[in-house]
Amino acid sequence: MLTSFETLPPSARVWIYQADRILTQQEVETISTYLQNEVAQWAAHGSPLVGAFAVLYNRFVIVAVDEAQNAASGCSIDASTRWLKALGEHLQLNFFDRSVSYWKNQSIASVEMLQLKQEVALGNITPDTVIFNNLVATKGDFETQWQLKAADSWMKRYFKGITA
After folding, report:
1. Going by C-beta distance under 8 Å and a sequence separation of 6 or more, which residues neighbour residue 77?
2. What are the domain boundaries of the chain?
3. Which of 23, 71, 72, 154 fits a disulfide with 27 by CB distance 3.0 to 4.6 angstroms?
4. CA pair distance 62, 141, nearest whole angstrom
5. Residue 115's Cα: distance from chain center in Å?
6. Do 2 and 36 contact (CB within 8 A), yes or no?
7. Chain segment 48-58, per-residue pLDDT in tens
């Protein structure tokens, strides 16, 4: 059962899929149409799931489920992964990008994990740089910890010994 992302409770589970590039408006519309159909029919062992999705900043697709109604099963979670895999193949992009995205001059930049230390050393990412923490697990965490300063995230280890 499809609902709006905004109406989900803070306990709703979320999965964040990051595209490897900025999406066009037409791609966002394609994604939205496809996910409206899929999420509306989403089920776990025959029981309907109350789910939602959002496409944010033309880069991130968030899929969520309110498990207070029915819990997502491994198979239903796999189904949502297949949706993004199919969309990626259709749109020729990768929704399983594991680079670190962050705000830079009011746009979203990304850096591969292997280049992260170098970007910090060059000063391109500072303790105050706002990053996207795609590891959040609930809507409540999404609302409070998805965008946070690098120094307040798992990246804090990269700033040890660096003085401002």
Report:
1. 15
2. 5-91, 100-159
3. 23
4. 13
5. 21
6. yes
7. 899 999 999 99
